[in-house]
Design a protein that fits this description.
Bound molecules: adenosine-5'-triphosphate, magnesium ion, nickel (II) ion
Order of helices and strands of chain C: EEEHEEHEHHHEHEHEEHHHEEH
Mean pLDDT of chain E: 88
Structural class of chain C: alpha/beta
Low-confidence stretches of chain E: 1-24
Low-confidence stretches of chain C: 333-338
Strand order of the largest sheet of chain C: 6-7-8-3-9-10
Structural class of chain E: alpha+beta
Largest sheet of chain E: 7 strands, mixed
Chains: A alpha/beta, B mainly alpha, C alpha/beta, D mainly alpha, E alpha+beta
Oligomer: heteropentamer
Strand content of chain C: 15-25%
Chain lengths: ~350, ~300, ~350, ~325, ~550
């Protein structure tokens, strides 16, 4: 326990450092201690979310994006999850060291989260209206009626049709996309300072998705909200993100501004990812994918964890030496020993594609 | 749902027939001479034997006896007790007593069982959890007669000045007269209920929606009482319903110790005397009560968990 | 090219969910018309993409096609027989031949079964498919096929990430090598790379086994990539159906056009340069859909006739594929792409 | 944001990999493609029950409870191993002396004497057979019967549920004493067998209701729908999907209920229809002692304590099994 | 008749009437509460158990009562009861007596009441008393239906004749010197006209009697019967207390707790489990009164294993009754040493002789001498009567003394016990000994010997049959002099001691508890009735 935080924890406002970044992760580790072994889901993640900005977290499925988010929220079940190391600082205060009672006041109100799996994340036995309204009741002490009225507004905001009639309905009565929107409505209900959105729009059609992203963008501008957007939809990322962090095997393998990532990825995994997007001109061809299986988190490969799948791999450096996050530019980094080669190559390809290629829809 | 309820209510008719027939057959099957049973240890004299055989149609085969009984029942006549009192009077006097006892017992059981179970569930395998387990088990292992009696002795006699609780009879009225006996009967079901609460709570505490509630910043107490409890309520209310049945079944001890004129002790006496009209009357009403109770509980399932549909 | 021999014939399928009020004795106060008169054929070897607004009834349609929900009316014919009337052996045969990948990955996995058991369940159910000793190997193959680590065969669903769970569902759907797979958003939680693997897999299987797909997704490029035909739904009914080319290049229904215009492009430089058709007005409630054309409340072309006559789903002059709009016309490419 | 990844290789001490653990190329897209060469394939066939067993083997609670149960079982079969006195021996050897009535513990009689002047410890040893076998068998039988009927009623609903549930309603109202009297006189088999039969016939209902309730709350779960979609037939759905997910309340109710079963056995004995001398049981001992508990506390306490320990061991066993069956708790 | 089982009832243990402690000065008025269990009935024709008798004793005054020596004496109501031949009795009553509803008590009140009770279709429990097995009034048989459901020939017994408002005659079928004694029984109370107009059922809820107390309100079932002093009571002695509340209890233990808690004034029988602490709890409020109860073991004659008298004697002599009485019964039972209870005129201490003496050595000899004997002794009892402990204790003595196995075998209730006995008889199976109990209805040896041991005795379940014994009992009943009768009966008793068809076990004794701060002069008779005339409030 860091004494300085402890000493200042009596006075909440004093402890928060207005100069510090809104949310800062430093060397966060999360492991699941199971009978079969220790699964190291997050292995030293560090990133920063600035007020009013969006950090998109991309990455392989199973690379630890959701676990990181849950660690920030402090909702991992212990056991099996343990955080052996790392800090999560909100305006300079380490959330991980905060007494549970105090930390609760941050959840929902200052940091909110949209869960990936909307159906199981909603309580099956309460009307959705009550679940949204609970935010107002718990944090703002509103009456049941007033909370419900606000819940209807929130549902309207996320464009759920006939919200007034359907506030009393239960989660299972809604479609997948509607549930997801209810989660979103709940998360933004209290205008949090940080919003962690874990794949918030996967179940939404593009028109609604656009509207929801607009809504979030608006909120962000109005309230200066910082957002962590976990998504697989590169289109959405391209539209809204300011910065991007790419995760692989529990680590950040590349971090850059949105423009850099798309035009000249410096990590082979990122590059592979971008190449996997389906394109209309290749309709009858196989999609390109990063070959190979994701690593077993109980036995993460030595050296660069990506090396078994990496086309740029060179023995022995890649198999023995873990690449640090090489700093490429200000706030830009890539964890590849040969990032320069990769970057150069992708830049060249990008230019070519600009000339002749076309996207799926354009 | 309306149709379901209607269907359930209709099903009560065959249930009543089944119950009365079953009880009738069971009383019929009781060993020993019926007349002798009604007379206790005294040898009935021949004139009385004739009288009783005639009165209870004892010479008829079971079906005929039953038919005659049901015929009377159809006109609302529950028959007479062996002491020649109308069974309806008996039911009117004794049912309210037992129902009040059951109600108070269930309230105690629910309050204590849920409370204790929740705390034990939150601190799984902790000291409290273990203590509760052992305590409730000791309560299960010691006959309720002893427990009730000790309670009566301590609270009613030794600490009378402190508690001011009546310890016998119902003349002090509801709820005073029922507090101690109610508490006593509640002890029986406490072990199961607290354990059940604890277990279902543990199962649910790890679900995703609890995690969501935590992420929403909902206070712990509210998470338990509002979010988790409702999801765990179905087996719990089922158990509480079943406990009402066992309370009524074992009320004989409590009713005897606390001198409550309820159906429990009546049933014990009547079974011994093979007093069919009384037993059938009591059981029929009891089954009716359970049929309604279980219907309400089943409907509660759908209220507690909207995913449950009846149609 | 897929044949024209239909494996599924869907006719006038309707599913209404009752809307109730009250706590103990629930009164019905209306119905959500989740699926409201849907007809189409699914041909052998064909992939039919289904897109549409969230909540327009796609998942419900999928469940109906599996006979997991009872329809309010209408029929689904499989091998010439109505699947809702099948019993016994035939029913089981149908269950073997039509498989589904459910939209909600986690809740559709038994929390007390290992992944191996979940994916292997179809083998246990249809014992004739794989000999007992072989099943485990097959399960591991399946896991690997969908990009899951076969070493994780003994894990339980809660130990996986969202995308991994989704892949477990896919593996289960593929296990039987069915004739028809109904995929309800099978790749929504996958990163593009894994998504690409899965899509490739689906395509390979299709080629190899002459599989048919009903492919529900929101990612229009994914849909386009895999589909031979695309069906666009709005508020419980089909508004436009046609080959991928017809729908993507020559959409004639305003909703389809709006949909296509909203597709985000994975290119940050085009961020604010696209022109999106912004749909105005509130989304109508499926419990109380607008009269006539259901889209009219948000349609920029709506006229009086739209409120009165529901437009039939027929081939339109603008482009020869069925579209349910009185004023079907193509938008120029520039308008769409901006 | 420089040097984000500040730790060096292996700083978390785990970045060691089995060579070839993850091979680069897999044949994605080829159905039936080989499992990657040299890949360590999990040989163990994990299944809920197998995993539960593995879990149990590591559980201290499990072994403790199992040991206690084993001791009780041995006591039930060979009470003579635990004591040299048999107060109910029929060979005329005499053990109880009224002059020892309610006397406290003394050498060789660690639990003292009961009201009749019999050694409490030997009675307890000899009472194990009836109590343990009645408690054990009745609990198992009524859990099986009640569980099965409850699950079937809950799953099928409709008229099946109607019939089973109405029978349950009737049994709820049925007085234990009457039922016991009739059953035990009809079967003409007093003693352990008869008591087991009567208690099972009367005891399955509570368990059936609990089973039914937990089935009702999961029968429409998505994973059950998914199993149906795969073509699983009802027995499989019941056994593989519904049962494991609705077992917890069943285990709780039946293991705690074991105590109630033993007590009911005593009631029957007390009424003259249960086990009878020369057989004895804990319940009988307890109910005998309860009329003299003032002044004879030890005669009540010891058998009660023994019963408590026996029930406790079953509860702990049940708890260990239940926890082992919950993958989320591992 | 007479009923057995010792749940509610008890009576016996003569003499030594300790009575209440120091006779407190009589104070008039006040309320006393007495414990009771729910009576079965409250109409004289039906009451045959202690609880109903206790209430009716307050509400009614009959023709005969029993004095301290259990001799029948006339009540204030009876003028004379006379007979020359023990067959025709002339009964005169005093005028001026009224029922609680104001109507006069006349000879007809008696005759009607008795006829009603004897009339078969009324199904009265006490009909038996008018029949040949008890007092035997002429014409009784005509009141009984010939077969089930039939209407009897007559509605009135020919042996009852109203002579005037204050006189009636009774003719018996055969001479009986027990008649006068029997008149003290509840069955012989008079009934007002209201009983016949309103019907028995309604009457019972608030009986209208002619006794010192009248009902206040009606019978609150299972809870309370409240009676208040009847101001027009015509008897010479009048009660002191103004009101008696009969509080009903299901368990004597609860009543005891209430007594110590101050919510109850008199407990007529302290339960054995509380006896150890009763003396210290109650102080002067603990009192021992004579009681009448007789418990014994019957040996079925059909059982080949028990036909050898040596077996029966061995078993009887192997049991230490005194120790069991002290330990198991806490002194509420004393060893039986005759075949009639000590409260009966004609009881002889030690009349049972060797048979009732605890002598393990001798017992063992008898056992050894027996040829045909059971390998293990069984003592059957009904489990609902609280007999388990003394049976088990007895068994332990049998084991200890004879070195043979012994088990106490419960039957759920008496009816089942009889049923099993019957079955054993039919199948010729061994049944072993079984317990029986007896409470007298009126203080006469005939009330024991007739029903229990005579070959046609109503409660002779074990089938004892000795013509010589039967003849003696009969002879006694017909003797005109009391002393001669007693002599005959004692001779009959000697035959029993020789034959040993049963093993006498215990006589009862009753322990009364009361609240000394509230009541005084508490006296309980062998029928467990509280003496309402003596009772006073402090
Ligand atoms: N069990 C139910 N009870 C009541 N309404 C339901 C139920 N299931 C679905 N609905 C309603 O039916 C409509 C269609 O739902 P469905 O799940 O089919 O939509 P969808 O097209 O799959 O949407 P999404 O893309 O968001 O998953 C929605 O309005 C939904 O609320
Ligand atoms: N309880 C657990 N026990 C063991 N491993 C776990 C557990 N929970 C999660 N994991 C593992 O942790 C890793 C990270 O999971 P996480 O949910 O963060 O992935 P993700 O990046 O969000 O992926 P997706 O995009 O598929 O949702 C996964 O490989 C998963 O298998
Ligand atoms: Mg995730
Ligand atoms: Mg859907
Ligand atoms: Ni392009």
């Amino acid at each position: 326990m860091t004494t300085s935080y402890l000493a200042s924890s009596d006075d909440k406002t004093a402890a928060e450092d207005p100069g510090a970044p809104l949310l800062e992760l430093e060397d966060l580790h999360v492991e699941f201690r199971t009978r079969e072994g220790v699964a190291r889901a997050v292995n030293g993640v560090s990133y920063t979310v600035e007020a009013g900005k969006t950090l998109a977290v991309l990455g392989e499925s199973g690379s630890g994006k959701s676990v990181t988010a849950q660690a920030i929220m402090g909702i991992l079940d212990t056991p099996p999850a343990f955080i052996p190391k790392g800090e999560v600082r909100f305006k300079g205060r380490n959330l991980l060291r905060m007494p549970e009672r105090e930390r609760r006041t941050y959840r929902g109100r200052r940091i909110a989260m949209v869960f990936q799996d909307a159906l199981s994340a909603l309580n099956p036995v309460f009307p959705v209206g009550d679940q949204i309204g609970e935010m107002f009741r718990v944090h703002e002490g509103l009456s049941k009626r007033a909370a419900r009225a606000k819940a209807i507004d929130a549902m309207d905001a996320v464009r759920i049709p006939a919200a007034r009639q359907r506030v009393g309905d239960y989660p299972h009565q809604f479609s997948g996309g509607m549930r997801q929107r209810i989660m979103i409505a709940m998360a933004i209900a209290l205008n949090p300072e940080v919003l962690i959105a874990d794949e918030p729009t996967t179940a939404l059609d593009v028109t609604v998705q656009a509207q929801i992203m607009d809504l979030l963008g608006e909120l962000q501008r109005e309230r200066n909200m910082g957002m962590i957007l976990i998504t697989h939809d590169l289109g959405v990322v391209a539209d809204v993100a300011d910065r991007i962090a790419v995760m692989y095997a529990g680590r950040i393998v590349e971090e850059a501004s949105v423009f850099d990532i798309y035009s000249r990825p410096a990590h082979p995994y990122t590059k592979g990812l971008l190449e996997s997007v389906p394109r209309v001109d290749e309709k009858n061809q196989r999609l390109r994918a990063v070959e190979g299986l994701p690593p077993n988190l109980m036995r993460i490969p030595s050296g660069c964890p990506f090396h078994p799948r990496c086309p740029y791999k060179q023995e022995p450096v890649c198999t023995t030496e873990r690449p640090p996050l090489y700093q490429i530019g200000p706030g830009t980094g890539a964890a590849c020993h040969f990032w320069e080669d990769v970057r150069a190559e992708s830049q060249a390809e990008f230019a070519m594609h600009k000339e002749g290629g076309s996207h799926a829809i354009d | 749902m309306g149709r379901y309820t209607a269907r359930r209510l209709l099903q009560i008719i065959p249930v009543l027939f089944g119950t009365t027939l079953l009880i009738f057959a069971m009383v019929y099957a009781l060993p020993g001479d019926k007349v002798q049973r009604i007379s206790g240890e005294k040898k009935p004299d021949p004139a009385r034997v004739l009288y009783l055989r005639h009165k209870y149609n004892l010479d008829d085969p079971l079906v005929v006896q039953y038919g005659k009984y049901v015929g009377k029942l159809a006109s609302g006549d529950f028959g007479e007790t062996r002491n020649q009192r109308p069974v309806t009077d008996l039911l009117k006097e004794e049912y309210p007593v037992s129902l009040k006892l059951g109600l108070v017992g269930i309230l105690f059981e629910a309050a204590i069982g849920l409370g204790v179970g929740i705390i034990a569930g939150l601190k799984r395998n902790g000291l409290f959890d273990r203590t509760v387990l052992i305590t409730t088990l000791v309560l299960v292992s010691i006959p309720s007669f002893v427990i009730c009696f000790v309670l009566q002795l301590l609270v009613g006699v030794k600490w009378r000045g402190f508690f001011h609780l009546p310890v016998s009879g119902i003349r002090d009225g509801f709820p005073e007269a029922f507090i101690l006996p109610g508490f006593c009967v509640s002890l029986l079901g406490l072990a199961v209920l607290s354990r059940l609460t604890r277990t279902t709570l543990i199962e649910n505490l790890r679900s995703d929606y609890v995690r969501t509630a935590v992420a929403k910043g909902v206070p712990r107490r509210r998470i338990i009482t509002v979010h988790t409890l409702r999801n765990t309520m179905i087996p719990i209310i089922t158990q509480i319903g079943a406990d009402l049945s066992s309370i009524m079944g074992t009320a004989v001890v409590t009713e005897t110790v606390f001198n409550l004129p309820g159906v429990g002790q009546q049933m014990a006496q009547s079974v011994r005397a093979a007093d069919a009209p009384v037993i059938v009357g009591i059981v029929t009403l009891l089954v009716l009560i359970y049929a309604f109770l279980n219907l309400v509980i089943d409907l509660m399932y759908a209220v507690l968990d909207p995913r449950i549909r009846y149609d | 090219m897929p044949s024209t021999e239909p494996v599924l014939e869907v006719r006038d399928l309707v599913k209404h969910f009752p809307l109730t009020q009250g706590v103990l004795l629930k009164r019905q106060i209306g119905a959500v018309r989740a699926v409201d008169g849907v007809s189409f054929d699914l041909n052998k070897g064909e992939a039919l993409g289904v897109v549409g607004e969230s909540g327009c009834g796609k998942s419900t349609l999928a469940k109906l096609l599996m006979s997991l929900e009872k329809p309010t009316s209408g029929s689904v014919k499989w091998r010439g027989k109505d699947i809702f009337k099948l019993r016994g052996r035939e029913f089981r045969e149908m269950r073997r031949s039509i498989q589904m990948v459910m939209q909600d990955p986690y809740s559709s996995l038994n929390p007390r079964m290992t992944v191996g058991d979940i994916v292997g369940e179809p083998f246990e159910v249809h014992k004739e498919v794989a000999p007992k000793g072989d099943r485990r190997r097959r399960v591991q193959e399946l896991l690997e096929m969908v990009g899951l680590n076969p070493e994780h065969i003994n894990r339980y669903p809660h130990q996986f990430s969202g995308g991994q769970r989704q892949r477990i569902g896919i593996a289960r759907g593929l296990a039987m090598r069915p004739d028809v797979i109904i995929c309800d958003e099978p790749v929504s939680a996958l990163d593009v790379s894994v998504q690409a693997q899965v899509m490739n897999l689906l395509e390979d299987l299709q080629k190899e086994l002459d599989l048919s797909y009903v492919f529900i997704a929101h990612d229009l490029s994914v849909v386009r990539h895999i589909s031979d035909r695309v069906m666009v739904m709005y508020l419980g009914s089909v508004v436009e159906i046609g080959t991928d080319e017809a729908i993507y290049e020559h959409p004639t229904h305003p909703y389809t056009q709006a949909l296509l215009s909203a597709v985000p492009v994975p290119d940050p430089t085009k961020r604010n340069s696209r022109e999106r058709i912004l749909l105005q007005g509130d989304v109508p409630s499926p419990a109380n859909p607008p009269s006539g054309c259901r889209f009219r409340t948000r349609c920029w072309k709506a006229q009086d006739v739209c409120a009165e006559v529901p437009p039939p789903l027929v081939d339109r002059a603008a482009h020869p594929h069925p579209s349910a709009c009185h004023f079907a016309e193509e938008k120029s490419a520039e308008q769409l792409a901006g | 944001m420089t040097d984000i990844d500040r730790h060096a290789i292996g700083s978390d001490g785990s970045a060691v990999v089995t060579p070839g653990a993850v091979q680069g190329t897999t044949t994605l897209g080829t159905p039936g493609g080989d499992v990657g060469q040299g890949q360590p394939v999990a040989e163990r066939h994990g299944s809920l029950w197998g995993d539960a067993w593995r879990e149990l083997r590591r559980s201290v609670t499990f072994w403790i409870s199992l040991t206690m149960i084993a001791v009780f079982l041995v006591m039930a079969v060979f009470p003579g191993l635990f004591t040299s006195h048999n107060p109910y021996a029929l060979d005329g050897s005499w053990e109880c002396d009224l002059s020892n009535s309610l006397r406290g513990a003394s050498g060789g009689h660690p639990m003292g004497y009961d009201f009749q002047g019999c050694d409490v410890w030997s009675l307890t040893a000899y009472g194990a057979r009836a109590s343990i076998s009645v408690g054990f068998i009745v609990t198992i039988l009524s859990t099986i019967i009640g569980g099965t009927l409850g699950i079937v009623a809950g799953y099928y609903g409709g008229w099946v549920d109607g019939v089973i549930s109405r029978i349950i309603d009737i049994f709820f109202g049925l007085p234990y004493v009457l039922g016991g009297l009739v059953i035990l006189t009809l079967v003409q088999r007093p003693g352990i067998q008869g008591v087991v039969l009567a208690l099972t016939v009367l005891g399955w209902v509570g368990i059936a209701r609990i089973a039914r309730s937990s089935v009702i709350s999961i029968r429409d779960a998505d994973f059950v729908v998914a199993a149906r979609a795969v073509g699983a037939r009802t027995p499989r759905i019941l056994l593989k999907h519904i049962l494991p997910n609705s077992l917890a309340p069943l285990i709780v109710v039946s293991t705690v209920g074991l105590g109630a079963v033993v007590a009911s056995e005593a009631t029957f004995s007390f009424l003259g229809i249960g086990v009878q001398p020369p057989t004895t049981s804990w319940g009988l001992q307890i109910s005998d002692a309860s009329s003299h508990f003032i002044g004879g506390e030890h005669a009540l306490l010891w058998p009660s304590a023994t019963l408590t320990v026996a029930v406790l061991s079953f509860i702990l066993l049940g708890d260990a099994v239940r926890e082992a069956l919950d993958p989320k708790l591992r | 008749g007479g009923s057995s089982g010792d749940k509610g009832g008890s009576a016996s243990a003569s003499s030594g009437t300790s009575g209440s402690t120091a006779a407190a000065p009589a104070k008039d008025g006040g309320v006393v509460s007495i414990n009771l269990s729910e009576p079965q009935f409250l109409s004289p024709g039906q009451v045959n158990e202690t609880n109903g008798s206790e209430v009716l004793d307050a509400l009614f005054t009959g023709l005969v009562k029993y004095d301290q020596d259990n001799k029948a004496v006339l009540t204030d109501l009876a003028d004379s009861i006379e007979s020359t031949d023990n067959k025709t009795w002339d009964i005169k009553i005093k005028p001026g007596w009224t029922f609680h509803d104001g109507t006069p008590v006349t000879a007809k009140s008696f005759v009607d009441a008795w006829n009603w009770a004897a009339y078969g279709p009324n199904g009265a429990l006490n009909a038996y008393f008018f029949g040949p097995d008890a007092v035997g009034i002429q014409g009784y048989d005509d009141l009984q239906p010939a077969k089930e459901g039939a209407t009897p020939k007559a509605k009135e017994m020919s042996g009852l004749k109203v002579v005037s408002d204050t006189e009636f005659t009774v003719t018996l079928v055969k001479p009986s010197n027990v008649f006068k004694t029997a008149l003290g029984y509840t069955a012989f109370y008079p009934l007002p006209q209201a009983f016949f107009t309103e019907g028995e059922k309604k009457f019972q809820e608030a009986p209208i009697g002619n006794g010192p107390f009248k009902m206040s309100g009606s019978w609150v079932h299972n809870q309370l019967i409240k009676v208040v002093r009847y101001d027009q009571y015509a008897g010479a002695t009048k009660p002191h207390v103004a009101e008696i509340d009969y509080k009903m209890y299901k368990a004597a233990e609860t009543a005891y707790n209430d007594l110590t808690a101050g919510s109850l004034d008199i407990l007529t029988q302290i339960p054995p489990s509380d006896l150890t602490r009763a003396k210290s709890d109650l102080g002067d409020g603990y009192q021992e009164d004579p009681s009448s109860y007789y418990a014994f073991l019957g040996f079925p004659t059909f059982d080949p294993m028990y036909q050898d008298i040596n077996v029966r004697k061995a078993i009887s002599m192997s049991i230490d009754r005194a120790t069991i009485g002290k330990t198991v019964f806490q002194g509420t039972r004393v060893p039986a040493d005759d075949f009639v209870a000590p409260v009966i005129p004609g009881y002889r201490q030690g009349a049972c002789g060797e048979l009732c003496t605890y002598d393990p050595a001798k017992a063992k000899q008898y056992w050894a001498a027996a040829k045909n004997k059971p390998t293990s002794v069984t003592l059957t009892y009904n489990a609902d009567g609280g007999h388990k402990e003394w049976i088990d204790a007895s068994c332990n003595f049998v084991k200890k003394s004879l070195g043979v196995g012994c088990v106490g075998k419960p039957a759920p209730d008496f009816a089942t016990l009889l049923n099993n006995l019957d079955k054993a008889k039919k199948t010729k199976a061994s049944f072993g000994a079984f317990r029986l109990g007896w409470i007298m209805d009126y203080p006469s040896a005939q009330d024991y010997l007739g029903p229990l041991y005579s070959s046609k005795g109503s409660s002779n379940y074990y089938g004892y049959n000795n013509p010589a014994f039967d003849a003696l009992v009969n002879k006694g009943t017909q003797e005109t002099s009391d002393d001669a009768a007693i002599k005959d009966w004692q001779d009959a008793g000697d035959i029993l001691a020789k034959d040993a068809p049963i093993a006498p076990m215990f006589f009862g004794a009753s322990q009364v508890g009361f609240d000394t701060s509230k009541v005084a002069n508490v006296r309980v008779d062998p029928y467990q009735k509280v003496d309402k005339f003596a009772l006073t409030v402090k």
